[in-house]
Design goal:
Helix content of chain B: 10-25%
Shape of chain A: elongated
Number of helices of chain B: 2
Order of helices and strands of chain A: HHHHHHHHHHHHHHHHHHHHH
CATH class of chain B: Alpha Beta
Radius of gyration of chain A: 24 Å
Helix content of chain A: 55-70%
CATH topology of chain B: Alpha-Beta Plaits
Oligomer: heterodimer
Number of helices of chain A: 21
Structural class of chain A: mainly alpha
Distance between the termini of chain B: 17 Å
CATH superfamily of chain B: Dimeric alpha+beta barrel
CATH architecture of chain B: 2-Layer Sandwich
Largest interface: A-B, 11 and 13 residues
Strand content of chain A: under 5%
Order of helices and strands of chain B: EHEEEEHE
Number of domains of chain B: 1
Radius of gyration of chain B: 16 Å
Largest sheet of chain B: 4 strands, antiparallel
Low-confidence stretches of chain A: 206-210
């Protein structure tokens, strides 16, 4: 179905796929993230040269890790603080005598979980957590990360360097948190992954061609976390949620790039494959009875995915799910979404009543979706003048061109 | 690893001497010091006299200058410190959170540099 990859593409794909696992393994052995990354970078460069000449080795991962370890040994031996690095050198020498075949037999110890908790450590700034996670586990280049967040590469480079310094000197441990801290720390990792997803999902600004696919990256990270933390239910919840959202990707925008609301989307274009996977993950997770916000949001998304049309949507089911969500996460944003569901299950008037309670919440006045939702409810309640006001307020607050056009057109049609 | 926990708080933000809360507050400090000692984490720790007693010293052109007052005029003032020996930042943060002033002020946690010889 797809044209075969060129050798360059295969090399690039292999390096990217193996990057997180190899880097995590090197960093844990060397106890030095920067050194590990430098050596892997060098090994990847050698790989391009060698593999182009000799073809792909039998185990690209074993090749990369062996070469990276040799580079580390060279670097440490050249280091003027040679004597302080005896432990690392002994560690590397122990591995040095192994042949490539032996390295291939060794299962590469999986330290990606330690790595993800280090990158998302709460003592690091949120944006740095995101950048580090993409760099170390996603194998994205600094330029790609900067491009994805519309930052200058130098700014992003400084941010990543600063974060790595903090990890090296502030005693940020390279370990999986203790059992009692695990749920909270996992939640923090999940919110990093979800932010990455949303950045890719909602971003329509900038030249999208230059932006790496953050949604796919986020799904890959959630898949990894779900696999590595089988005892936790929320990674599965987030994975299902993102798959379900992503299933609508093709139908979310028109050929011209305009946004299409859920109501007007062509459901035949939804990806059945992603929906099925999302729902199947959810069905395996919900019976574990360890419910959390991501599982509930995924369940809500699944109701939409299972509805043949907008008209046939089971709104009372959605309202019920929002109520459970509000009970464990009583935020005004959940309340707002709940009101939208009630507007269909009951009436726009009732939903507008709920919105009145939110009017006083400071955060809501500058929250674009609040005004967009209010505009929609007012329009459906036959109050077009007020609806227009709310929609233009929402357009004003939007910093996304596609979204702004969508809101203004909606106001103009009233 | 050694971590310096610097205790900052705004004047008058915590329990004041003579009030009912002050006794329990001081006792909480005593208990905390006892705990870090029992846990083998304590290296040093002291309370400092107020900033009205501070003197800032500098040497410029080989001349000593001693100025009345603290180096930086900030709302939150350094009131004391604990130097703790902890496994990593996670443990240091856990202990810093137990310092009674964390409830109204802030604790800045800084790792101590280990010089390579």
């Amino acid at each position: 179905m797809f044209p075969p990859l060129t050798l360059e593409q295969t090399i690039d794909k292999t390096v990217r796929e193996e990057w997180g696992r190899i880097l995590s393994c090197l960093a844990s052995g060397l106890n030095d993230l920067q050194l590990a990354e430098d050596c892997l970078q060098d090994a990847a460069l050698s790989a391009i040269e060698h593999w182009r000449k000799n073809g792909l080795p039998q185990s690209p991962a074993a090749w990369l890790i062996t070469v990276a370890r040799r580079k580390a040994l060279d670097k440490l031996r050249r280091d003027r603080n040679f004597s302080n690095k005896q432990a690392e050198i002994t560690y590397l020498l122990g591995l040095e005598n192994r042949t490539m075949d032996e390295v291939m037999q060794d299962a590469i110890p999986d330290s990606r979980l330690e790595m993800v908790f280090t990158c998302c450590h709460p003592t690091l700034e949120r944006k740095s957590q995101i950048a580090l996670t993409l760099r170390t586990l996603g194998g994205l280049s600094t330029e790609e990360i900067a491009g994805a967040f519309l930052d200058k590469p130098e700014t992003m480079q400084r941010r990543i360097t600063r974060a790595k310094r903090k990890i090296a000197f502030a005693g940020i441990p390279y370990k999986v948190p203790d059992k009692e801290e695990l749920p909270q720390r996992t939640a923090s990792v999940l919110s990093v992954i979800y932010l990455i997803f949303n950045e890719g999902y909602l971003a329509t600004s900038g030249s999208s061609l230059l932006r790496v696919d953050l949604t796919q990256e986020a799904i890959r990270l959630a898949r990894m976390l779900h696999e590595l933390l089988p005892g936790e239910t929320e990674p599965a919840g987030l994975l299902a949620l993102m798959l379900l959202h992503d299933s609508r990707r093709a139908s979310r925008t028109s050929g011209k790039g305009d946004l299409i609301s859920l109501e007007k989307q062509n459901r035949n274009r939804w990806s059945r494959e992603k929906i099925d996977e999302g729902i199947s993950i959810l069905e395996q997770t919900l019976p574990k009875n360890d419910i959390g916000p991501y599982q509930l949001q995924a369940a809500i998304s699944a109701v939409h995915a299972n509805s043949a049309s907008w008209k046939e949507t089971d709104w009372s089911e959605i309202v019920a799910l929002y109520e459970v969500l509000y009970a464990i996460q009583p935020s005004p944003i959940v309340r707002l979404n709940s009101a939208i569901a009630i507007s269909y299950a009951d009436s726009p008037q009732k939903a507008l009543g709920m919105l009145e309670e939110l009017e006083g919440v400071e955060k809501m006045q500058s929250y674009q979706p609040y005004h967009a939702a209010r505009g929609d409810l007012l329009a459906r309640a036959n109050r077009p003048d007020e609806a227009r006001q709310s929609l233009s307020k929402a357009a004003e607050l939007s910093n996304n061109t596609v979204e702004r056009t969508f809101l203004l057109e909606k106001a103009a049609l009233l | 690893m050694q971590f310096m926990c610097l205790i900052y708080s705004a004047p008058n933000s915590g329990p004041k001497p003579g009030t009912a809360e002050f006794g329990p507050f001081m006792k909480a400090y005593g208990d905390f010091t006892q705990k870090v000692q029992d846990d083998g984490k304590f290296i040093a720790g002291d309370a400092l006299q107020g900033i009205e007693t501070a003197t800032t010293v500098s040497v410029r052109n080989e001349k000593i200058e001693a100025i009345d007052g603290p180096f930086a005029e900030t709302k939150e003032q350094l009131g004391g410190y604990y130097l703790l020996d902890c496994a990593d930042i996670d443990e240091a943060v856990k202990y810093a959170a137990m310092i009674p002033s964390a409830a109204h002020g802030r604790i800045e946690v800084r790792p101590v540099v280990v010089w390579d010889d």
